[in-house]
Amino acid sequence: MRSVKELFDLSGKVALCTASSKGMGLAMAEGLAEQGARVVISSRKLDACQAAADSINTQFGEGSAIAIACNVGYKEQLQALVDETKERLGSIDILVSNAGVNPYYGPMSKIPDEAFDKIMNSNVRSTHWICNMVLPDMVAKGKGSIMVTASTGAFGPSLDLGVYAVSKLADIGLVRNMALEFGPAGVRVNAICPGVIKTDFAKALWDNPAGEARAAEMVPLRKFGEADDLKGLAVFLASDASGHMTGQALTVCGGTNMWT
Questions:
Q1: Which helix (H) or strand (E) holds 67?
Q2: Is residue 259 part of a domain?
């Protein structure tokens, strides 16, 4: 029987993390590195990626992280990201598909076509692309873990974030279908669904008096989440501790979304 320490050990694993130079992505990458994985920090700006990788290497040892810039909206850049990861670190064991955008806030009926396309392409199509790029190596090894950042917004309608919510529900659909298709090959695929987390991405939702009041009244834990709240879940999903879990959508929301 394996110990809990062994179940959570990620030594020797390679983890590719998109949108990981700050916020939730960086917190998840730090958690994986702390447990022994070698992580790829990726976002659009190389200097930000390198700064994050340097910080991880300082904390957990040289060679814990490398930086590779990538704009997930471009298929050729995603393929280059995967190829360089494999060239420098070896085949990918863990994928954290964390990248997402929301360029529009308002009624879905009034969203410009360009904004609709950007949300769906960046949040859904690029997730489909990168998952398909890393899956062959995972299938060949008979093991792998993919986690996709969705949102609690996927579970209900929104007057202001409608298309974003639709894209995140689509991400959960992708996760479930990939879990079904690749489960027989030993690959697990799960979704992480944050509520409001105090990051720059969600700043408009929490950094104001209305947001503070909403947390005090509507969140059972009476506070919004922090990026570090994602660390443990990422390690759990990446490791053998969650070896019999796939196709799930796990919420990190302070209790705003409770399911039976």
A1: strand 65-67
A2: no
Q: What angle do CA 253, 14, 96 make, to 5 degrees?
A: 25
Residue 28 lies in a domain: yes
Phi, psi of 39 (to 5 degrees): -115, 145
Say what the pLDDT of residue 239 is: 98
Pick the catalytic residue from 74, 104, 105, 164. 164
- Tokens read off for 247: 């196709």
| CB environment 77-101: b (16+ within 10 A), e (fewer) | bbeebbebbbeebeebbbbbbbbbb
> For this structure, is 164 an active site residue?
yes
CATH number at residue 16: 3.40.50.720
Neighbours of 7 (CB within 10 A): 13
156-177, pLDDT tens digit by residue? 999 999 999 999 999 999 999 9
